Amino acid sequence: MTLNPIKIAPSIAAANLLCLGDELKKLEAAAVDAIHFDVMDGHFVQLLTIGVPILEQVRAATKLHLDVHIMVTNPDAVIDDYLQAGADTLSFHIEAAQHAHRLCARIKQAGKRAGIALNPATHWQSIQYLLPDLDQVTLMTVNPGYSRQPHLTTMHPKIREFADFCRAHNYAIDIVVDGGVSLSNAGTLAKLGATTLVAGGAVFNGGNTEEAVNALRKAAAGSTGI
Ligand code: DX5
Ligand code: ZN
Predict the structure, then answer these.
(1) Which residue puts its alpha carbon closest to atom 9 of ligand 1?
(2) pLDDT in tens, 133-168
(3) Is residue 223's pLDDT more than 80?
(4) Looking at residues 49-66, what average pLDDT do you find?
(5) Among 22, 33, 38, 174, which one carries the catalytic annotation?
(6) Closest residue (by CA) to atom 2 of ligand 1?
(7) What is the mean pLDDT of residues 59-65?
(8) pLDDT bucket at 225, cuts 50 / 70 / 90
């Protein structure tokens, strides 16, 4: 089976935030497929990261696709703010949503891509009936809250089962894997059925950003893996 090239979405919350403009230029030079924009609210997850004001500035600074992942307790209350601030894809956590179907409809009405993220403990079947309304599903392979945590290989059967289900039902859903992606597991994740890999620590590792992105692309296309 030939795999489509996997998309790489660096998580800029893991970048040097004091040099965000330069980091964006490097990601443009590396022709990344999207920027993954992690929002943490200090409630759903422990840390506070970047939010609406920074998203507005990033939106003004780049044409790259902005994949906004809101790890917040109240997505129903804040979703419009992130749509207006310039998200291209907006993913909220199913564990936090009051009315997930309505949220998806609001995102689509705004002309944006709708996504749902699942914590490691959440079964993909919890969103089975929403799949016709979704553009993207983010499967967490760490517990959300921090970059540079170890990748949970115990999520691999979930990725495969979900990808198989989507294929069997002709759902053209972008399957995003988020958490601890590295050169050593990118190939395996692509084979399991991931279509996009989020990468924080693997891209922002103190080295050359473009080389790190290219190495991940190569690893995803290759046969090495856990
Ligand atoms: C986890 C975030 C991830 C993460 C990615 O809370 O949603 O996007 O920071 O960073 P790495 O690739 O270092 O796990
Ligand atoms: Zn994320």
Answers:
(1) 147
(2) 999 999 999 999 999 999 999 999 999 999 999 999
(3) no
(4) 98
(5) 38
(6) 144
(7) 98
(8) very low
- CATH number for the segment(s) 7-221: 3.20.20.70
**Which one-letter amino acid corresponds to residue 64?**
L
Half-sphere exposure of 20 (CA within 13 A, CB side): 18
Give this prediction's pTM.
0.96
| Confidence label for 226 from pLDDT (cuts 50, 70 and 90) | very low
Collapse the DSSP code of 38 into the 3-class scheme (helix H, G, I; strand E, B; otherwise coil) and give the result: strand
Residue 70: C-alpha distances to residues 51, 52, 81, 190 (Å) = 9, 11, 11, 24
Minimal CA–CA distance to 171: which of 137, 121, 126, 196?
Answer: 137
Strand partners, 117: 93, 138
Q: Identify the pLDDT of residue 157.
A: 98
Q: Report how far residue 200's alpha carbon sits from residue 215's, in angstroms, rounded to the nearest whole number.
A: 14
What are the structural domain ranges in the chain?
7-221
- Rounded to 10°, the helix 20-29/52-61 angle is 50
Using CB distances shorter than 6 Å, the residues near ligand 1 are 11, 13-14, 36, 38, 69, 142, 144-149, 178-181, 198-202
Annotated active-site residue 178? The verdict is yes
CB 71 within 8 A of CB 80: no
Average pLDDT, the chain: 96
Give, in order, the Cα–Cα distances in Å from 116 to each of 3, 78, 98, 141, 188.
Answer: 24, 15, 13, 14, 23
- Residues, the chain, total? 226
- What protein residues have CB closer than 5 angstroms to ion ligand 2? 38, 69, 178
